[in-house]
Amino acid sequence: MNTNEKVSTIMTTGVITVDKNDHTLLDVKEIFRKEKIRHIPILSGGKLVGMISRNDIHRLSFGNMFEAQEGADEAIFEMLTIDQVMTGKPVAVSSAATILEVATIFSEGNFHSLPVMDGEQIKGIITSTDIIRYFLK
């Protein structure tokens, strides 16, 4: 195992992003359901402004807790905006960051994914699961 290996070797590329000006929370909920992903970088005008997780969306759902309350979810998702739910000013790493550097960030932070950026362009996403799988190999 080489902890100095670049994060670009294990990151996910082809990242699904959402522009907060063109989408709603209902759109985000549907993307999570359809794509079976756990994190989405949020853009505004092509620039990274936040991150939203599937857990953020689940925290807003009441349909699973109360019988016959599925419609309550729709009302909540229509009342709130992406800005109100996302984590703003996300921490990001460059594709040249090492796996050890990213593992350290995860161990010190309260999040499980990082956008991988070169300049202002998203190149990928790295998750704590990616790091764990790397260490298990």
Structure notes:
There is one protein chain. The chain has 137 residues and is an alpha/beta fold. The chain has a single domain, classed as CBS-domain (Roll). It is built from six helices and seven strands. The strands form two sheets. Strands 1-2-3-4 form a four-stranded mixed beta sheet. Strands 5-6-7 form a three-stranded mixed beta sheet. Strand 6 and strand 7 (121-127) form a beta hairpin. The longest helix is centred in the N-terminal third of the chain and has 11 residues, at 25-35. The protein starts with 17 loop residues before the first strand and ends with a helix.
Task: Name the features.
137 residues; CBS-domain; four-stranded mixed sheet; three-stranded mixed sheet; 6 helices; 36% helix; 23% strand
Secondary-structure blueprint:
Elements: E1 18-19, H1 25-35, E2 39-44, E3 47-53, H2 54-58, H3 70-79, H4 82-85, E4 87-88, E5 93-94, H5 99-108, E6 113-118, E7 121-127, H6 128-136
Parallel strand pairs: 1-2, 5-6
Antiparallel strand pairs: 2-3, 3-4, 6-7
